[in-house]
UniProtKB/TrEMBL annotation:
This protein's name: Guanine nucleotide-binding protein-like 1
PANTHER family linked: GUANINE NUCLEOTIDE-BINDING PROTEIN-LIKE 1, LARGE SUBUNIT GTPASE 1 HOMOLOG-RELATED
Residue span of region Disordered: 520-566
UniProt keyword Metal-binding present: no
Top-rank taxon, per record: Eukaryota
Length: 575
């Protein structure tokens, strides 16, 4: 036998697999599904053996660069996932309304600070700066690992590149605009960021409570008051990027969603924007002349909705390239720079569009859509800067993070504990009008999913069993959109409901919502009648309306999102 490299035994099946893989690699130069699948598979294999999970990974050839800003989270272990799946099969427990009250500091612990940019100077080379930041970030992660186990922590951003985006936006901004989704406001606002912006950077900070169309008006008033009291230097504003949502009146009419849709061009959220302008005026004083911005709002308010919807994505965008060094000077050149920060999916891009009165940055239902910060001039001396969504380290439970939109639903390995979280706080059985799949009266999260799968006819392709996974995904998407609407509450809200019901700021809230018709203040999150849930279709019209609804809601970039607040329409929509 000739001397040389010893061959390892190779089965016929393994040989076949090898040849198949080679064939696939040969077709690498061709664009198409095969190449995409190969790259995603390659990424998944890498991931399985790594402690870091990369999310929204793009299957492109030049992946090193394109995927610089992908979300990176700690990978959950197999045991963790197994434990959670078993938990989802156990009977649901009832959670009282009082337990929806949250105190942010219990989740954003002091020991869980966010990464700050290490000291730098103009004498450092780009490489030196890069290395210093990498070393710092590694040490930062190790220090967290020493104090906490990954299991008890939330998903939070582990991609240094994304934190760098935050550092740059913080450096270049005169005012930091932090945006939260009102439904989860208490668990989206990191006190450590407030402390850093106000006390270390000595900058001003505005908190935008966005998506107020999704929460009851008294609850919005209570959240505003909570933040104003707790963070005295914070300017707190309420906002919706979908004002005039209820322009067409009744909401539980036979036509369901369609009647709640505001028709016409995408317009500026003028009421909310006016309040933002006033807050900015108070902050900048005489340093920047904001009269052009005021003019813009005035013009917009006077405009009739006859104009065309103008979509001008990228028109005035100046995607700022890597800014390694940036020395901040307040109101440099008489320009006010406002940096928009917040967790993924809170509506940062939508807020920018709503302030502009036209679509200038792209919006998506998929969390983590904005990858690189971008700047845009609102007027000749007001500049907005949109930062990618950032998840700060905390102890917010993972199922809740999914509902908050911090984690892309499509990438979830185990959606059922999130359904459990939801079903213990909202009466999903009643809301969805589902029957127990086994005729029982003890419900588990899995039963809810199976009940929904049965109702919607979701079956697996191979064995034609109920597709619980698809049902769970469908329910989570509805929760993200606000069709199934869960809102957390500030401390002591439940015992003081009457007080908030008649609070003076409820009038301002209704004005921001631009509601023209008299409506109940508790539209979101209240009880649902049978009539609301399953409206009888008008003779001969149901089918067409239903189809229209499907096509319109499919668009990922649909700024005037018809789904929005209408939890009454859960049975009218397709996912
Ligand atoms: N109901 C309601 N939905 C909103 C509002 N603002 C934004 N949305 C929806 O929230 C989703 C996320 O909006 P984006 O503007 O893409 O959010 P983002 O914070 O830029 O997201 P990332 O790119 O993940 O950082 C989209 O489906 C929007 O239509 C609002 O005021 N009310």
């Amino acid at each position: 036998m000739p001397q040389g490299r010893r061959k390892t035994p190779f089965s016929g099946k393994a040989k076949k697999e090898q040849l198949k893989a080679k064939k696939q690699l040969k077709s690498f130069d061709f664009e198409g599904d095969q190449k995409k699948a190969l790259l995603v598979e390659q990424q998944q294999n890498d991931e399985a053996s790594s402690s870091i999970r990369k999310i929204n990974f793009q299957p492109v050839k030049d992946n090193a660069r394109s995927n610089k800003y992908v979300l990176q989270f700690h990978n959950e272990s197999k045991e963790e996932l197994k434990e959670r799946r078993e938990f989802a099969r156990q009977s649901l427990l009832h959670v009282t309304e009082k337990e929806l009250e949250v105190v942010g500091e219990n989740y954003f612990l002091k020991e869980l600070d966010f990464p700050k940019r290490p000291q730098w100077s103009f004498n450092m080379s780009r490489d030196q700066l890069e290395q210093k930041e990498q070393k710092y970030f590694k040490e930062y992660i190790s220090s967290i690992e020493e104090k906490f186990s990954w299991k008890e922590l939330s998903f939070f951003e582990l991609n240094l590149e994304t934190w760098r985006q935050l550092w740059r936006v913080l450096e270049m901004s005169d005012i930091v605009l932090f945006i939260v989704d009102i439904r989860f406001a208490g668990l989206m606002f990191p006190p450590s960021l407030y402390d850093y912006v106000i006390n270390v950077l000595k900058k001003n900070m505005i908190l935008i409570l966005n998506k107020i169309d999704l929460s009851p008006v008294p609850l919005v008033a209570a959240w505003k008051d909570y933040f104003t009291e707790k963070y005295p230097k914070l300017h707190v504003l309420m906002f919706t990027t979908m004002p005039g949502y209820n322009l067409l009146g009744k909401q539980n009419d036979k036509a369901g969603l369609q009647i709640r849709r505001r028709k016409g061009r995408l317009r500026m959220a003028a009421e909310g924007t006016q309040l933002l302008l006033e807050a900015c005026k108070e902050i900048v004083g005489n340093n920047v002349d904001l009269s052009t911005w005021q003019e813009k709002i005035k013009e917009e308010t006077m405009l009739e909705s006859e104009e065309d919807e103008s979509t001008e994505v990228g028109e005035t965008i100046n995607v700022t390239q890597d800014v390694g060094y940036f020395e901040h000077e307040h109101y440099k050149g008489g320009v006010l720079t406002i940096g928009c920060l917040g967790q993924p999916n809170v509506g940062k891009s939508s807020v920018m569009n709503a302030i502009m009165g036209k679509k200038v940055v792209s919006v998506s239902k998929t969390p983590g859509h904005t990858k690189h910060f971008q700047t845009i001039f609102l007027t000749n001396n007001v500049r907005l800067c949109d930062c990618p969504g950032l998840i700060f380290p905390s102890k917010v439970p993972k199922p809740l993070q999914v509902l908050m939109g911090s984690f892309p639903i499509a990438q979830l390995k185990e959606p059922f504990t999130t359904i459990r979280y939801l079903a213990e706080r909202l009466d999903l059985v009643k809301l969805l009008r589902i029957d127990h799949p086994e005729g029982d009266d003890e419900w588990s999260a899995m039963d809810i999913c199976d009940g929904w799968a049965k109702k919607r006819g979701y079956l697996t392709a191979k064995a034609a069993r109920l597709d619980s996974y698809r049902a769970a995904n469908s329910l989570l998407r509805m929760a993200l959109d606000g069709k199934i609407c869960l809102s957390l509450m500030p401390p002591n809200y439940v015992t003081r409901k009457d007080y908030w019901q008649n609070h003076p700021s409820t009038d301002v809230i209704k004005w921001i919502l631009a509601r023209r018709t008299e409506e109940s203040d508790n539209t979101a999150g209240s009880d649902i009648s049978d009539e609301d849930v399953e409206p009888k279709p008008a003779a001969g019209s149901g089918d067409t309306e239903h189809k229209k609804l499907q096509t319109e809601s499919e668009s990922d970039n649909d700024q005037i999102d018809l789904a929005g607040a209408n939890k009454f329409a859960v049975l009218n929509t397709e996912d």
